[in-house]
Protein backbone atom coordinates (compact mmCIF):
# COMPACT_ATOMS: atom_id res chain seq x y z
CA UNK A 1 0.00 0.00 0.00
CA UNK A 2 1.39 3.34 -1.00
CA UNK A 3 0.49 6.78 0.17
CA UNK A 4 0.21 9.97 -1.88
CA UNK A 5 1.91 12.59 0.27
CA UNK A 6 -0.05 15.43 -1.29
CA UNK A 7 -3.48 13.86 -1.03
CA UNK A 8 -2.93 11.44 1.85
CA UNK A 9 -4.64 8.88 -0.33
CA UNK A 10 -3.60 5.26 -0.64
CA UNK A 11 -2.77 2.85 -3.39
CA UNK A 12 -2.87 -0.94 -2.94
CA UNK A 13 -2.96 -4.21 -4.84
CA UNK A 14 -1.72 -7.76 -4.98
CA UNK A 15 1.91 -7.94 -3.95
CA UNK A 16 3.96 -8.86 -7.00
CA UNK A 17 7.61 -9.62 -7.52
CA UNK A 18 9.09 -7.05 -9.83
CA UNK A 19 11.90 -8.14 -12.13
CA UNK A 20 15.38 -7.11 -11.16
CA UNK A 21 17.14 -4.38 -13.12
CA UNK A 22 19.10 -5.49 -16.15
CA UNK A 23 22.78 -4.47 -16.23
CA UNK A 24 23.64 -3.03 -19.64
CA UNK A 25 26.97 -3.09 -21.47
CA UNK A 26 29.11 0.00 -21.10
CA UNK A 27 28.61 2.25 -24.15
CA UNK A 28 31.41 3.55 -26.36
CA UNK A 29 32.18 7.15 -25.36
CA UNK A 30 32.97 9.96 -27.80
CA UNK A 31 36.62 10.54 -28.74
CA UNK A 32 36.26 14.20 -27.88
CA UNK A 33 37.33 14.84 -24.27
CA UNK A 34 34.46 15.97 -22.06
CA UNK A 35 33.74 16.68 -18.44
CA UNK A 36 32.62 13.59 -16.55
CA UNK A 37 28.88 13.39 -15.94
CA UNK A 38 28.48 14.10 -12.23
CA UNK A 39 25.20 12.22 -12.08
CA UNK A 40 26.72 8.87 -13.05
CA UNK A 41 26.86 7.68 -9.48
CA UNK A 42 23.33 8.88 -8.88
CA UNK A 43 22.10 7.23 -12.08
CA UNK A 44 23.81 3.98 -11.12
CA UNK A 45 21.64 3.96 -8.03
CA UNK A 46 18.57 5.00 -10.01
CA UNK A 47 19.29 2.46 -12.72
CA UNK A 48 19.37 -0.32 -10.15
CA UNK A 49 15.73 0.47 -9.45
CA UNK A 50 14.67 0.65 -13.05
CA UNK A 51 12.86 -2.47 -14.14
CA UNK A 52 14.31 -4.31 -17.07
CA UNK A 53 10.99 -4.15 -18.85
CA UNK A 54 11.31 -0.38 -19.08
CA UNK A 55 13.82 -0.95 -21.86
CA UNK A 56 10.87 -1.91 -24.02
CA UNK A 57 9.37 1.55 -23.62
CA UNK A 58 6.03 -0.12 -23.62
CA UNK A 59 2.59 1.28 -24.24
CA UNK A 60 0.20 3.70 -22.82
CA UNK A 61 -2.38 2.68 -21.13
CA UNK A 62 -3.09 -0.59 -13.64
CA UNK A 63 -3.36 -1.23 -9.58
CA UNK A 64 -1.51 -1.18 -6.48
CA UNK A 65 1.68 0.05 -8.07
CA UNK A 66 0.29 3.54 -8.30
CA UNK A 67 2.07 5.90 -6.02
CA UNK A 68 2.87 9.62 -6.04
CA UNK A 69 0.35 10.30 -8.79
CA UNK A 70 -0.42 13.71 -10.17
CA UNK A 71 -4.06 12.77 -9.74
CA UNK A 72 -5.47 11.48 -6.42
CA UNK A 73 -4.01 8.24 -5.14
CA UNK A 74 -5.32 5.20 -6.96
CA UNK A 75 -5.42 1.63 -5.80
CA UNK A 76 -5.57 -1.50 -7.81
CA UNK A 77 -8.48 -3.57 -6.68
CA UNK A 78 -6.43 -6.73 -6.43
CA UNK A 79 -6.73 -9.51 -3.95
CA UNK A 80 -5.99 -9.80 -0.31
CA UNK A 81 -3.62 -12.12 1.53
CA UNK A 82 -0.14 -13.29 2.08
CA UNK A 83 -5.01 3.55 -25.05
CA UNK A 84 -2.79 1.40 -26.26
CA UNK A 85 -1.86 0.94 -29.89
CA UNK A 86 -0.97 -2.61 -30.85
CA UNK A 87 -0.15 -4.57 -33.93
CA UNK A 88 -3.61 -6.09 -33.76
CA UNK A 89 -6.56 -4.16 -35.13
CA UNK A 90 -9.06 -6.86 -34.23
CA UNK A 91 -12.56 -5.56 -33.79
CA UNK A 92 -14.70 -6.30 -30.77
CA UNK A 93 -16.74 -9.34 -31.68
CA UNK A 94 -19.34 -10.86 -29.37
CA UNK A 95 -18.58 -14.38 -28.21
CA UNK A 96 -21.66 -16.49 -27.21
CA UNK A 97 -24.43 -15.85 -24.72
CA UNK A 98 -26.42 -12.65 -24.84
CA UNK A 99 -27.71 -11.98 -21.37
CA UNK A 100 -31.04 -10.28 -21.33
CA UNK A 101 -32.88 -7.14 -22.35
CA UNK A 102 -31.62 -4.78 -19.67
CA UNK A 103 -35.05 -4.62 -18.01
CA UNK A 104 -34.28 -7.23 -15.37
CA UNK A 105 -31.05 -6.81 -13.44
CA UNK A 106 -31.53 -10.10 -11.60
CA UNK A 107 -31.70 -12.06 -14.86
CA UNK A 108 -28.62 -10.28 -16.20
CA UNK A 109 -26.69 -11.07 -13.04
CA UNK A 110 -27.86 -14.69 -12.92
CA UNK A 111 -26.63 -15.34 -16.45
CA UNK A 112 -23.41 -13.36 -16.20
CA UNK A 113 -22.29 -14.74 -12.82
CA UNK A 114 -21.56 -18.15 -14.32
CA UNK A 115 -18.85 -16.49 -16.42
CA UNK A 116 -17.08 -14.86 -13.45
CA UNK A 117 -14.24 -16.86 -11.89
CA UNK A 118 -11.94 -16.47 -8.93
CA UNK A 119 -8.19 -16.28 -9.51
CA UNK A 120 -5.70 -17.45 -6.87
CA UNK A 121 -2.05 -16.47 -7.28
CA UNK A 122 0.38 -18.99 -5.79
CA UNK A 123 4.06 -18.07 -5.52
CA UNK A 124 7.16 -20.03 -4.55
CA UNK A 125 8.21 -19.30 -0.98
CA UNK A 126 10.99 -20.79 1.11
CA UNK A 127 10.08 -22.49 4.36
CA UNK A 128 12.69 -21.18 6.79
CA UNK A 129 12.42 -24.12 9.13
CA UNK A 130 12.77 -26.83 6.45
CA UNK A 131 14.57 -24.91 3.71
CA UNK A 132 12.12 -26.35 1.21
CA UNK A 133 10.38 -24.16 -1.40
CA UNK A 134 6.66 -24.55 -1.79
CA UNK A 135 3.72 -22.74 -3.32
CA UNK A 136 1.91 -20.34 -1.00
CA UNK A 137 -1.13 -18.20 -1.73
CA UNK A 138 0.00 -14.66 -2.52
CA UNK A 139 -3.32 -13.08 -3.46
CA UNK A 140 -6.72 -13.43 -5.07
CA UNK A 141 -8.64 -11.64 -7.78
CA UNK A 142 -11.29 -12.11 -10.42
CA UNK A 143 -11.50 -13.11 -14.06
CA UNK A 144 -14.00 -13.36 -16.92
CA UNK A 145 -14.67 -16.32 -19.22
CA UNK A 146 -15.23 -14.77 -22.62
CA UNK A 147 -14.07 -17.11 -25.39
CA UNK A 148 -14.04 -20.81 -26.24
CA UNK A 149 -11.96 -22.26 -29.05
CA UNK A 150 -11.67 -25.97 -29.67
CA UNK A 151 -11.05 -27.71 -26.36
CA UNK A 152 -9.88 -24.53 -24.62
CA UNK A 153 -11.57 -21.61 -22.89
CA UNK A 154 -10.00 -18.18 -22.30
CA UNK A 155 -10.17 -15.88 -19.28
CA UNK A 156 -9.40 -12.15 -19.13
CA UNK A 157 -7.97 -10.80 -15.89
CA UNK A 158 -5.56 -8.10 -14.70
CA UNK A 159 -1.80 -8.54 -14.95
CA UNK A 160 -1.37 -7.50 -11.33
CA UNK A 161 -3.65 -10.35 -10.24
CA UNK A 162 -1.36 -13.05 -11.68
CA UNK A 163 2.03 -11.30 -11.73
CA UNK A 164 4.80 -13.34 -10.15
CA UNK A 165 2.68 -16.49 -9.93
CA UNK A 166 4.27 -19.91 -10.12
CA UNK A 167 0.81 -21.52 -10.22
CA UNK A 168 -2.56 -19.99 -11.06
CA UNK A 169 -5.74 -21.60 -9.76
CA UNK A 170 -9.20 -20.81 -11.11
CA UNK A 171 -12.28 -21.13 -8.89
CA UNK A 172 -15.40 -21.86 -10.95
CA UNK A 173 -19.07 -20.96 -10.52
CA UNK A 174 -20.02 -24.48 -9.40
CA UNK A 175 -17.31 -24.52 -6.73
CA UNK A 176 -14.86 -26.57 -8.77
CA UNK A 177 -11.22 -25.62 -9.15
CA UNK A 178 -8.74 -26.06 -11.97
CA UNK A 179 -5.22 -24.93 -12.81
CA UNK A 180 -4.87 -22.27 -15.51
CA UNK A 181 -2.17 -21.73 -18.09
CA UNK A 182 -0.90 -18.18 -18.53
CA UNK A 183 -1.06 -17.38 -22.25
CA UNK A 184 0.47 -13.94 -21.89
CA UNK A 185 0.38 -10.70 -19.90
CA UNK A 186 0.98 -7.02 -20.53
CA UNK A 187 1.93 -4.98 -17.43
CA UNK A 188 1.50 -1.57 -19.07
CA UNK A 189 -2.15 -2.19 -19.90
CA UNK A 190 -2.63 -4.37 -16.80
CA UNK A 191 -4.11 -7.22 -18.83
CA UNK A 192 -3.52 -10.97 -18.85
CA UNK A 193 -5.09 -13.96 -20.60
CA UNK A 194 -5.43 -17.41 -19.05
CA UNK A 195 -6.46 -20.71 -20.63
CA UNK A 196 -8.37 -23.59 -19.04
CA UNK A 197 -10.05 -26.74 -20.31
CA UNK A 198 -13.11 -25.86 -22.38
CA UNK A 199 -15.30 -28.29 -20.42
CA UNK A 200 -15.41 -25.70 -17.62
CA UNK A 201 -16.85 -22.97 -19.85
CA UNK A 202 -20.55 -23.59 -20.40
CA UNK A 203 -21.33 -19.87 -20.21
CA UNK A 204 -19.33 -17.06 -21.80
CA UNK A 205 -19.84 -13.34 -21.49
CA UNK A 206 -20.66 -11.44 -24.65
CA UNK A 207 -18.27 -8.54 -25.23
CA UNK A 208 -19.96 -5.18 -25.85
CA UNK A 209 -18.65 -1.98 -27.38
CA UNK A 210 -17.53 0.46 -24.70
CA UNK A 211 -17.21 3.28 -27.22
CA UNK A 212 -21.02 3.54 -27.18
CA UNK A 213 -21.12 4.27 -23.43
CA UNK A 214 -22.37 7.60 -22.12
CA UNK A 215 -22.11 9.15 -18.69
CA UNK A 216 -25.18 8.27 -16.65
CA UNK A 217 -25.76 4.81 -18.11
CA UNK A 218 -26.35 2.01 -15.63
CA UNK A 219 -23.57 -0.55 -15.10
CA UNK A 220 -23.10 -3.66 -12.97
CA UNK A 221 -19.84 -4.86 -11.41
CA UNK A 222 -19.32 -8.54 -10.52
CA UNK A 223 -16.23 -9.90 -8.79
CA UNK A 224 -14.72 -11.39 -5.65
CA UNK A 225 -14.08 -8.55 -3.17
CA UNK A 226 -11.85 -9.36 -0.20
CA UNK A 227 -11.29 -12.92 -1.37
CA UNK A 228 -13.28 -15.89 -2.59
CA UNK A 229 -15.53 -16.06 0.49
CA UNK A 230 -17.51 -13.19 -1.07
CA UNK A 231 -17.31 -14.54 -4.61
CA UNK A 232 -19.48 -13.06 -7.35
CA UNK A 233 -20.55 -10.07 -5.33
CA UNK A 234 -22.79 -7.78 -7.41
CA UNK A 235 -22.79 -3.97 -7.20
CA UNK A 236 -24.67 -1.50 -9.36
CA UNK A 237 -24.01 2.09 -10.35
CA UNK A 238 -23.67 4.38 -13.30
CA UNK A 239 -20.96 5.43 -15.71
CA UNK A 240 -19.56 8.52 -14.01
CA UNK A 241 -17.32 9.43 -16.96
CA UNK A 242 -15.79 7.87 -20.05
CA UNK A 243 -12.24 8.15 -21.39
CA UNK A 244 -10.52 9.15 -18.17
CA UNK A 245 -6.71 9.00 -18.32
CA UNK A 246 -4.88 7.84 -15.21
CA UNK A 247 -1.10 8.06 -14.81
CA UNK A 248 0.25 5.02 -13.00
CA UNK A 249 3.47 3.24 -12.08
CA UNK A 250 3.66 -0.39 -13.13
CA UNK A 251 6.20 -3.19 -12.94
CA UNK A 252 7.20 -2.23 -16.50
CA UNK A 253 7.52 1.49 -15.88
CA UNK A 254 5.28 4.53 -15.72
CA UNK A 255 2.19 4.31 -17.90
CA UNK A 256 -1.11 5.99 -18.71
CA UNK A 257 -4.32 4.01 -18.69
CA UNK A 258 -7.55 4.95 -20.41
CA UNK A 259 -10.45 3.98 -18.15
CA UNK A 260 -14.20 4.12 -17.55
CA UNK A 261 -15.08 5.82 -14.26
CA UNK A 262 -17.98 4.33 -12.30
CA UNK A 263 -19.59 4.69 -8.89
CA UNK A 264 -20.36 0.94 -8.74
CA UNK A 265 -18.49 -0.36 -5.68
CA UNK A 266 -15.14 -1.91 -6.64
CA UNK A 267 -13.04 -3.32 -3.81
CA UNK A 268 -9.79 -5.28 -3.38
CA UNK A 269 -10.36 -8.63 -5.04
CA UNK A 270 -12.58 -7.18 -7.77
CA UNK A 271 -9.56 -6.76 -10.04
CA UNK A 272 -10.09 -8.63 -13.30
CA UNK A 273 -13.85 -8.83 -12.76
CA UNK A 274 -16.59 -7.70 -15.11
CA UNK A 275 -18.20 -4.32 -15.63
CA UNK A 276 -21.44 -4.94 -17.52
CA UNK A 277 -23.85 -2.66 -19.33
CA UNK A 278 -27.61 -2.96 -18.85
CA UNK A 279 -27.76 -5.72 -21.49
CA UNK A 280 -25.27 -7.84 -19.57
CA UNK A 281 -22.47 -7.28 -22.08
CA UNK A 282 -18.86 -7.04 -20.91
CA UNK A 283 -17.79 -3.44 -21.48
CA UNK A 284 -14.99 -3.15 -18.90
CA UNK A 285 -12.46 -5.06 -16.77
CA UNK A 286 -12.46 -3.65 -13.22
CA UNK A 287 -8.99 -2.59 -12.22
CA UNK A 288 -8.67 0.61 -10.15
CA UNK A 289 -10.22 2.61 -7.36
CA UNK A 290 -9.47 5.74 -5.37
CA UNK A 291 -8.33 4.63 -1.92
CA UNK A 292 -9.06 7.22 0.72
CA UNK A 293 -11.16 7.15 3.86
CA UNK A 294 -13.01 10.25 2.72
CA UNK A 295 -13.67 9.13 -0.85
CA UNK A 296 -16.43 6.89 -2.15
CA UNK A 297 -17.72 5.83 -5.55
CA UNK A 298 -14.57 6.34 -7.61
CA UNK A 299 -13.82 3.06 -9.40
CA UNK A 300 -12.23 2.50 -12.78
CA UNK A 301 -12.39 -0.19 -15.45
CA UNK A 302 -10.39 -0.83 -18.62
CA UNK A 303 -12.84 -0.37 -21.54
CA UNK A 304 -13.49 -3.15 -24.04
CA UNK A 305 -12.41 -0.97 -26.96
CA UNK A 306 -8.93 -0.94 -25.38
CA UNK A 307 -8.66 -4.43 -23.89
CA UNK A 308 -9.95 -6.48 -26.83
CA UNK A 309 -7.12 -5.64 -29.30
CA UNK A 310 -4.57 -6.41 -26.57
CA UNK A 311 -6.31 -9.63 -25.56
CA UNK A 312 -6.63 -10.83 -29.16
CA UNK A 313 -2.93 -10.20 -29.78
CA UNK A 314 -1.95 -12.08 -26.62
CA UNK A 315 -4.07 -15.06 -27.67
CA UNK A 316 -2.55 -15.01 -31.15
CA UNK A 317 1.11 -14.43 -30.29
CA UNK A 318 1.46 -14.74 -26.50
CA UNK A 319 2.73 -11.17 -26.21
CA UNK A 320 2.14 -7.57 -27.25
CA UNK A 321 4.58 -6.20 -29.81
CA UNK A 322 5.63 -2.58 -29.41
CA UNK A 323 8.34 -0.28 -30.75
CA UNK A 324 11.61 -0.55 -28.86
CA UNK A 325 14.26 2.13 -28.27
CA UNK A 326 16.46 0.37 -25.75
CA UNK A 327 16.90 2.70 -22.78
CA UNK A 328 16.16 2.76 -19.08
CA UNK A 329 15.19 6.23 -17.96
CA UNK A 330 14.34 8.42 -15.01
CA UNK A 331 12.53 11.71 -14.74
CA UNK A 332 14.79 14.76 -14.92
CA UNK A 333 12.68 16.41 -12.22
CA UNK A 334 13.65 13.63 -9.79
CA UNK A 335 17.40 14.24 -10.07
CA UNK A 336 19.04 16.93 -7.89
CA UNK A 337 20.34 19.82 -10.01
CA UNK A 338 23.91 19.49 -8.72
CA UNK A 339 24.12 16.05 -10.37
CA UNK A 340 23.33 17.43 -13.81
CA UNK A 341 26.71 18.95 -14.65
CA UNK A 342 26.62 21.54 -17.42
CA UNK A 343 22.97 21.04 -18.35
CA UNK A 344 21.54 24.51 -19.11
CA UNK A 345 19.36 25.96 -16.36
CA UNK A 346 16.51 26.52 -18.82
CA UNK A 347 16.21 22.73 -19.39
CA UNK A 348 13.82 21.93 -16.54
CA UNK A 349 11.91 18.91 -17.87
CA UNK A 350 12.82 15.75 -19.77
CA UNK A 351 14.05 12.22 -19.15
CA UNK A 352 17.57 11.13 -18.28
CA UNK A 353 18.99 8.03 -19.94
CA UNK A 354 19.97 5.89 -16.96
CA UNK A 355 20.91 2.69 -18.81
CA UNK A 356 21.25 1.45 -22.37
CA UNK A 357 20.74 -1.90 -24.04
CA UNK A 358 24.06 -2.42 -25.79
CA UNK A 359 22.41 -4.17 -28.76
CA UNK A 360 19.58 -1.66 -29.21
CA UNK A 361 18.78 1.12 -31.66
CA UNK A 362 19.68 3.64 -28.95
CA UNK A 363 23.19 2.21 -28.63
CA UNK A 364 23.66 2.09 -32.39
CA UNK A 365 22.54 5.72 -32.73
CA UNK A 366 25.08 6.89 -30.13
CA UNK A 367 22.82 7.72 -27.20
CA UNK A 368 24.81 7.75 -23.97
CA UNK A 369 24.08 7.29 -20.30
CA UNK A 370 23.39 10.71 -18.79
CA UNK A 371 21.86 12.17 -21.97
CA UNK A 372 18.71 14.20 -21.35
CA UNK A 373 15.90 13.67 -23.89
CA UNK A 374 13.65 16.71 -24.21
CA UNK A 375 11.77 16.13 -27.51
CA UNK A 376 10.59 13.31 -29.78
CA UNK A 377 9.90 14.36 -33.37
CA UNK A 378 9.63 17.97 -32.21
CA UNK A 379 7.08 17.22 -29.48
CA UNK A 380 8.10 18.03 -25.88
CA UNK A 381 9.04 15.15 -23.58
CA UNK A 382 8.48 16.16 -19.96
CA UNK A 383 8.45 12.72 -18.33
CA UNK A 384 8.85 9.00 -19.11
CA UNK A 385 5.06 8.78 -19.53
CA UNK A 386 5.23 11.54 -22.13
CA UNK A 387 7.87 9.65 -24.10
CA UNK A 388 5.79 6.48 -24.12
CA UNK A 389 2.63 8.35 -25.07
CA UNK A 390 4.35 10.00 -28.02
CA UNK A 391 6.08 6.78 -29.01
CA UNK A 392 2.88 4.77 -29.21
CA UNK A 393 0.35 7.32 -30.39
CA UNK A 394 1.28 7.21 -34.07
CA UNK A 395 4.54 5.27 -34.37
CA UNK A 396 5.24 1.63 -35.11
CA UNK A 397 8.14 -0.78 -35.50
CA UNK A 398 10.34 0.33 -38.41
CA UNK A 399 9.56 4.05 -38.14
CA UNK A 400 12.42 6.53 -37.90
CA UNK A 401 12.31 9.06 -35.09
CA UNK A 402 14.35 12.10 -34.08
CA UNK A 403 15.24 12.73 -30.45
CA UNK A 404 16.37 16.10 -29.15
CA UNK A 405 19.07 15.36 -26.60
CA UNK A 406 21.23 17.45 -24.26
CA UNK A 407 24.69 16.09 -23.48
CA UNK A 408 25.96 18.50 -20.89
CA UNK A 409 25.38 21.94 -22.39
CA UNK A 410 25.41 20.65 -25.97
CA UNK A 411 22.09 20.14 -27.77
CA UNK A 412 22.03 17.30 -30.30
CA UNK A 413 19.51 15.70 -32.67
CA UNK A 414 19.78 11.92 -32.81
CA UNK A 415 17.90 9.79 -35.36
CA UNK A 416 17.14 6.11 -34.90
CA UNK A 417 14.86 3.41 -36.30
CA UNK A 418 12.42 1.78 -33.92
CA UNK A 419 12.85 -1.97 -33.51
CA UNK A 420 10.53 -4.50 -31.84
CA UNK A 421 10.38 -5.49 -28.20
CA UNK A 422 9.74 -9.03 -29.49
CA UNK A 423 13.45 -9.22 -30.34
CA UNK A 424 14.42 -8.67 -26.70
CA UNK A 425 14.94 -11.72 -24.51
Automatic annotation (TrEMBL):
Protein family membership: Belongs to the peptidase S1C family.
Skewed-composition ranges (Polar residues): 78-104
Keywords: Hydrolase, Protease, Serine protease
Protein known as: Trypsin-like peptidase domain-containing protein
Start and end residues of each PDZ domain: 314-409
Residue span of region Disordered: 1-39, 76-104
Species assigned in the record: Rossellomorea oryzaecorticis
Superkingdom of the source species: Bacteria
PANTHER family given in the database record: PEPTIDASE S12, PROTEASE DO-LIKE 8, CHLOROPLASTIC
Composition-biased stretches (Basic and acidic residues): 10-30
InterPro entries per UniProt: Chloro_Bact_Ser_Proteases, PDZ, PDZ_sf, Peptidase_S1_PA, Peptidase_S1_PA_chymotrypsin, Peptidase_S1C
Amino acid sequence: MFENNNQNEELTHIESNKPEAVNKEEMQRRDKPKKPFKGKGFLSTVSAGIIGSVLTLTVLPQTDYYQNLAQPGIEQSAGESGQAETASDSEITPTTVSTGTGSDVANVVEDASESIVGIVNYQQQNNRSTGISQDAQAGTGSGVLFKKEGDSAYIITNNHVIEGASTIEVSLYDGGKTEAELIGADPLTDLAVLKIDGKYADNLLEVGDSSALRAGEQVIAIGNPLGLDLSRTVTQGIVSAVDRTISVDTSAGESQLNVIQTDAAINPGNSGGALLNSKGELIGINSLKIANSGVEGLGFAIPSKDFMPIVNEIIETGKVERPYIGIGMTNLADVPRNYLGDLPEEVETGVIVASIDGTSAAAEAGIEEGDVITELNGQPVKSPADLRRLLYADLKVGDQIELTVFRGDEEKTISLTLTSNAMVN
